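Students often ask why we bother predicting the structure of a whole assembly rather than each chain alone. The short answer is interfaces. A chain on its own may look different once its partners are present, and contacts between molecules only exist in the joint model. In this exercise we take two input lines together and write out one structure for the complete complex. Read the inputs first and try to guess which parts will touch.
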Amino acid sequence: MKKSYHIPVTHVVPMTTIRRELLMPVPGTVLVGVNENVKGSQVLAESAPTPHHYFLNVARGLGVPVRRVGQYLVRNAGERVEKGEVIAGPVGFARRTIRAPHDGRIVAITRGRVLFEVRAEPLELQAGFPGRVIATDGVQTITLEATGALVQGIWGNGLQDTGIMRLAGDDSSSRLRAGQLDIKLRGAVVVAGICDHPAPLKQASDISVRGVILGSILSDIIPVAKELPYPLIITEGFGELPMNSAAFQILGSNVGREVSIDATPMEPYKTNRPEVIIPLPSNAPIELPNEVIPIKRGIRVRILRAPHRGKVGKVREMLPRASIYPSGVRAVSAKIELEQGGVISVPVDNLDVIQ
Amino acid sequence: MSTNIDIETLLAIDVGSVHTRAILFDVVDGQYRLVATGRVPSTSGAPLFDISEGVRNVLDELKRISGRTFIDDTENLIMPVASASAGVDRFMATATAGPKVRTILVGLMPGVSVESVHRLAAMSYLDVVGEISLMDRRRDEEQIDAILTARPDLILIAGGTDGGARDSVLRMVETVSLASRLLPLNQQPKIIYAGNQQIVGAVEDYFGDWANLILSLNVRPSLEMEDIAPARKRVTDGIAELRAGKISGFDELVEWSDGHFMLTADAFGRVIRYLSQVYSPEKGVLGIDLGASQVTVAAAFDGDLDVSILADLGMGTSLDGILERGRIIDIKRWLPIDLSDSYVRDYIHNKTLFPRTVPTILEELHLEHALAREIVRLAVKKARQGWAGSGVARDSVLMPPLEPIIASGGVLTGVPRPEFAALMLLDAIQPTGITTLVLDPNSLTPALGVAAGQMPVVTVQVLETGSYISLGTVVAPIGRSRRGRRILSLRLERVDGGEEVSGEVRKGQLVRIPLSQGEQGRLTIRPERGIDVGFGGPGKAGTIRVSGGAVGLVIDGRGRPLQLSKDPAHRRELNQKWLWDIGAME
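Now the answer. The structure tokens for the assembled complex follow.
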């Protein structure tokens, strides 16, 4: 029996079908229907985020024993009330009452207290990229589909936006410099190779860019990156790593187009990945990209560890025996034909599929 | 040991967050033996979220190695054995894979029930995201909002000794019950109640027909007594159920195993406890499993087991946890080469993103080993807080006597030479006295832990058959002495009549004496005055029988606790020298 290896897949595709399930944190109201075409900025659904709660101590407020609270309540659990409406009372000569402190809902009545819920501003779920609604459960999930280019990253700062894509630099290893970021890039999604200082990221914020896509940043900059007001995606990792050639080629050939950038970071046991979607029309149906790709001859891969980190190549063959590396580590390996020439052995665990 | 064995072929699977392993045991010459092992990437995460694929892949791998078929045409496990080359008699499974279980701990008093639920959480795969206690200064409604914001998978309630506090416990129960009902149906947590048993009826009244309420015996039946085991079983079951709800394939694994399914840490701990009952009662047994997403530290002293799971530390997806708990300088102190802080930090973040990757250049190997040292050191330091039976104060800088120390995890077992693993363990754990270092290269321990429940003979026989790699015997003297001064003299007589070794060891030296796996020797040690090697006090000499190992006999005269030089260049030189001294590098 032939052994098959499965390694992580990173989608870097010039044209594909992109299907994403969008999920609200809690159930709410879906505002779109199946087959509806939506814009990237369109709100598809609303839900109430975690509300605030208050205990209203009815027994103490009315000056009655806990056991007699029930007879003075004029509203029941589950009912919505407006600010100032009487919830309990009046009691006694002073006609004491308990009134709703805000618009809200009575969620429980317990031990002479009313648990009162105040809703926060509704949470909106935006499409993120233009596409067509292909399914929804009507309350919490919406599946959106589009065609276009897809470039997945490896880390993101959690934000989302859209903008016209511009290059800052000539190649995949160009460093992002504050001086490059002038007013011409206002509102743009900026692409560069490496960022080794927080200054350019802050400058990008000053000119109100809509997003930044980089090969890598130094991990020292992570705290700054997490506080940026715009989405930031890196495609390779941390350090001084040029963007992989496949991703840079796709981004470079789509300069001037509107792109959607979703910098949701990867998390274990979740499907989210930071990604850039470049919507492109298609006259013919295109298959969804494969999520599981066994490693075999001809598969395009990226090397994830030194000394050839970030290089892209094709699998020439799986080696029948484990190889030994300069570190002394022995590992199941593949021969990789690098795009820039040369053939090297790489542990299979140090590869991901680029497709 | 010989026994009448009815069940002959056993298959064990361990589903980890990075790898899925399969182990095949069979009876050879009347004894259970390890026959074959396989390892493939786990498929519990994206994009499949289904452990079945990894399980089938590893069974394919095992078939390729052993020639035995495990799965029939209908994709089911062949059990019992169908022919000489198909099926197994028994199947066992363990798992660590799965998302962390977000948990809120609810207890009454710090130092009593709060401490007990914390200890319970530390022994399980729980990610504590909040805590509520009587000392909580937040108002009831703020506690409710905190629960709603945290969206826990599990709420663990303790409080009140049996027949003790009632109203204050019920008040917390009410808060939890109100908050839980306010969460959307598909996000409502499981509630485990393990408090005052006299008020169980009232607790049930608060929850009504709530399907997610699980009752357990009190973790603190009296102020003096702690009884975590029953609640731990409930937590374990709860974790398994929650994971099965999020990742496919667990149900099938549980069904195949017909009750022989355990969380990996529980099974690992069971073997450590068993060994502590077999070995000298004066010493404890320590087990360390350095995984990608957590570290498990199991220590047992004369049958008294403590298991700690540190879910925020690991060599893969949890590696960046070390930046929360430690400092870069603490990692770099273990390096024999100069690396910048930025390089170390970048490496940690990248390894967190790509947990499966392996170092192919020497500087990355050194860094990976430095990280492993610091993680094990931090994990053991934390775990020691629960070692009640060790006989050594929890805050003592010295480790209690241990025999043996068993270690597993890819970074330790995948070393280019076993000497690397030995030095990592010596640096990170800093054992005292005389001990044996053992590696579990095939991650057998969890499987043997499951087997120990109903078929202890499997555990006993496999442990005896050399499926583990003994790195060798370590002598680590304690006591004050000046660097370079003689701390002991020794004589090693080989039982097979080989060359006798005698000499002396000076403070600061790390000495390795070759003694191969299977070789036996008589070791006589005469420590200097004030130096204790574990023969009953400082200056006391003695003779013991020692077994060889992949590294041999190691005399670690570097002192306890190990004092590393404050001068970075000198420290790096010493780290390099120790690698040479122990034979990891030439």
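Check your guess against this: The two ends of chain B are 41 Å apart (CA to CA).
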